[in-house]
Specification:
386 residues; Helix Hairpins; HSP40/DNAj peptide-binding domain; 4-stranded mixed beta sheet; 3-stranded mixed beta sheet; 26% helix
């Protein structure tokens, strides 16, 4: 989807250089990842910086005004003094610090001296996925469960550093502690600069000369843990509950990943679930269907009495409002839909047969089929959407 660089910066298309620079600085300060913990801030920071990179340059801005993003694509940008290639977070930090890093008042120190966030330092641990089976009644009420998970925990011997006790990590000689290496190439399109994690230290900026004997320098060992999971009411199969910061520890002091609990709601023989609604069959006798009746039916909350109207036909549905599943992340509940099924006896007693024979003498013929009358499943569908 095409982006509007002017809209990203919140300026008009005839804004001058000072307006563009002022707007960018304001947005960059707001979304800079070192000052904003919002997960979406990093992507927003990259977008506004890319927009500023294009609009601050008169030549690139003119091409963008004429051709849109196609005019400032990969090849065009590389030959016009841009970063070249895909615009990534490293590029965004570099442009930001080049524009504002020399300002007074400790501005550079405020943002880590221009080092790229996420490049230097231990890596975050991976997420762990585990499946949790629930009964329908548990999904309806919410429940606290426990799951057993095998996790990578910080090594007790070295405290998670990866270095043998009594030794310490040292600055990587290849990248000088920056955690990344840069490679400059020249081509017919201009100068191309690529930034990648240091191959010596894996982007951490440090290396270990004496690895811990317990974890072999990894800084973590595997253990089995029991974790509590608070399951909210209304969950469905394949819903994912995220337990932030409860997953694998990162190598050599890195932060933890998440535990992703995938819910599986088992089948309940009494109901069929359709979203937040519950569907069930209710067998009734011919006399109950013809004369009407008060019957006890099962709901997810227990037994409840329901009125069967006289003259109901087999396949017609009765709606019990607010007797279905709670709505996840919303108020209210779904409904319970009762499909009436008229039961025809197959083994008649003598008294039953005589009674039905007398009825047959007076009941007359059934009405002709109404081809406009909806079928069984269509009636159920109408009951759901009513």
């Amino acid at each position: 989807m095409a982006r509007d660089y002017y809209q990203l910066l919140g300026v008009s298309r005839d804004a001058d250089d000072q307006e563009i620079k002022k707007a960018y600085r304001k947005l960059a300060m707001r979304y800079h990842p070192d000052r904003n913990d919002d997960p979406g801030a990093e992507e927003r920071f990259k977008e506004v910086t890319e927009a500023y990179e294009i609009l601050r340059d008169p030549e690139q801005r003119a091409r963008y005004d004429r051709f849109g993003e196609a005019g400032v694509g990969r090849g065009a940008r590389a030959g016009a003094g841009g970063f070249g290639g895909a615009f990534d977070l490293s590029d965004a930090f570099e442009l930001f610090m080049r524009e504002f890093g020399g300002m007074g008042g400790g501005f550079g120190e405020m943002f880590g001296g221009g080092r790229r966030r996420g490049r230097k330092g231990p890596r975050r641990g991976s997420d762990v996925k585990v499946r949790l089976s629930l009964e329908l009644t548990e999904a309806a009420t919410g429940v606290e469960k426990t799951v057993r998970v095998k996790l990578l925990e910080p090594c007790e011997r070295c405290g998670g550093s990866g270095a043998e006790p009594g030794t310490s990590r040292e600055t990587c000689p290849t990248c000088g502690g920056v955690g990344e290496v840069r490679q400059v190439q020249r081509s017919i399109l201009g100068q191309l600069v690529s930034v990648r994690p240091c191959p010596e230290c894996g982007g951490e900026g440090e290396r270990i000369s004496s690895p811990c004997q317990e974890c072999r320098g990894e800084g973590r060992t595997r253990h089995e843990r029991t974790i509590k999971v608070d399951v909210p009411a209304g969950v469905s199969s394949d819903d994912v509950l995220k337990l932030s910061g409860r997953g694998n520890a990162g190598p050599r002091g890195g932060g933890r990943g998440d535990v992703l609990v995938v819910v599986e709601v088992t089948t309940d023989p009494r109901f069929q679930r359709r979203g937040d609604d519950l569907l069930m069959d209710l067998p009734v006798t011919f006399s109950q269907a013809a004369l009407g009746a008060e019957l006890d039916v099962e709901t997810i909350d227990g037994s409840e009495r329901v009125s069967i109207p006289a003259g109901i036909q087999s396949g017609q549905a009765i709606r019990m409002r607010d007797r279905g599943m709670p709505r996840l992340r919303a108020s209210g509940r779904g409904d319970q839909i009762i499909r009436v099924r008229v039961w025809t006896p197959t083994d008649l007693s003598r008294e039953q047969r005589e009674a039905l024979e007398k009825l047959a003498e007076t009941e007359g013929q059934p009405p002709a089929p109404d081809h406009k009358e909806p079928g069984f499943w269509e009636r159920v569908k109408q009951a759901f959407t009513a």
